[in-house]
Amino acid sequence: MSFTNLTAEAITEFYITGFKGTQNPKAVGCIILIIFLLILLGSSANICIIARDKRLHTPMYFFICTLSVVDIIHSTSSSPTMILVLLADITAISYRSCITQMTVYHLSSVMGKFTISFMAYDRLVAISNPLRYHSILTKTRIVLITVTLLILGCALIAVFTGIADRLPYCRTSLSFVFCDYGSLVRAACVNPDEYFVTLTVISFFILFGPFGFIFISYLMIIFTVLKIAPSEERKKTYSTCLNHLIVVASVFVPPFVSIILTRIGFVLSLTEGNVLIIFSSLGPCLVNPFVYCFRTKEIRRKLFRIIKAVAPQE
Questions:
Q1: Could you tell me whether strands 13-16 and 92-94 are parallel, antiparallel, or unpaired per DSSP bridges?
Q2: pLDDT band, residue 1 (cuts 50/70/90)
Q3: Most buried by CB count within 10 Å: which residue of 68, 126, 149, 173?
Q4: Using an 8 Å Cβ cutoff, are 97 and 52 in contact?
Q5: Among candidate residues 175, 167, 129, the one with its CA nearest the CA of residue 273
């Protein structure tokens, strides 16, 4: 496609058109709204329960709490825009709001993957060095790890923000469901393939770096568990790791499916691509809090006690 005849414009706002042609947009909007509210409810419940119970102030629960905060930010960065488009037919978003949405969306996605990867390390330390668990994962080290990951995430996403904010834009229409790097590049008077090289390189690091770290951690966990003689101890260990593995699958399976489909030459339509984006954006945020709410014994018990306390007595 030639871009030589396109002239850059002083864009002040964009229009989200990814839902154009959607059948029953109100129903789709209601579904996204319900999912968004469930994410806020589940994640907030985890945060409140962990924050109020000092017995849960351990590294594992700190990472669960951090993941809940990231899930709230990540879903909030995209869901309100989709809900407004579908339910209120408000498609306009200012240029600066669009850039901010893109930054927050990608940064929270990165921080989610980084957090999940260090949750694997937490499980590795707890299983292989249970007696030294608290001496290895001290509060100081956890804060240092979190700050380091945040700085690294900000540095990576600053590349996207810097590129997107300097692009010469020719179109106000974004054929996606919210603002992200890909949609903004396609709206500019440039050859998008050149700018997707940067996206591919950074995305490769963001995706395969944490996944490789998780994979190695679980290989070490498997070797350690095989040395555990009592079957009851093995079952307890497997149960603890299963929660995390469900979360890992919900986060990493959608992008891997997309990569596999691309490699075998399967081309997704715009609608199919948008569905995959929505699923990969909201799916993990919905799965994460409820996995830890109902599959983590301490949080589940605390939640049921709270529900029992506020429920009307007969």
A1: antiparallel
A2: very low
A3: 68
A4: no
A5: 175
Q: Which residues contact 17 (CB under 8 A, 6 or more apart)?
A: 91, 173, 174, 175
Tokens encoding 194 = 């050149």
Amino acid code (one letter) for 192: P
Q: Tell me the HSE value of 120 on the side-chain side, using a 13 A CA sphere.
A: 23
Among residues 230, 284, 312, the alpha carbon closest in space to that of 38 is found at 284
| DSSP-assigned letters across all residues of 192-237 | HHHHHHHHHHHHHHHHHHHHHHHHHHHHHHHHHHHT---HHHHHHH
**Each residue's pLDDT tens digit, 168-218:** 998 899 988 999 998 999 999 888 888 888 888 888 899 999 999 999 999
Q: What is the Cα Rg of the chain in Å?
A: 22
Contact of 172 with 13, CB cutoff 8 Å: yes
Mean pLDDT of 99-106: 95
CB atoms within 10 A of CB 22: 16
> What predicted TM-score, i.e. pTM, was given to this entire model?
0.88
> String of b and e for 88-119 (b: at least 16 CB within 10 Å)?
eeebebebeebbebbbbbbbbbbbbbbbbbbb
Q: CA of 220: how far to CAs of 96, 124, 127, in Å?
A: 46, 7, 10
Report d(CA 93, CA 301) in Å as an integer: 43
- The pLDDT tens digits for 229-281 are 566 667 777 777 888 888 899 899 888 887 777 667 677 777 778 888 888 89
Please identify which residue in the block is written with the tokens 């330390």: 125
**What gap in Å lies between CA 169 and CA 184, rounded to an integer?**
8
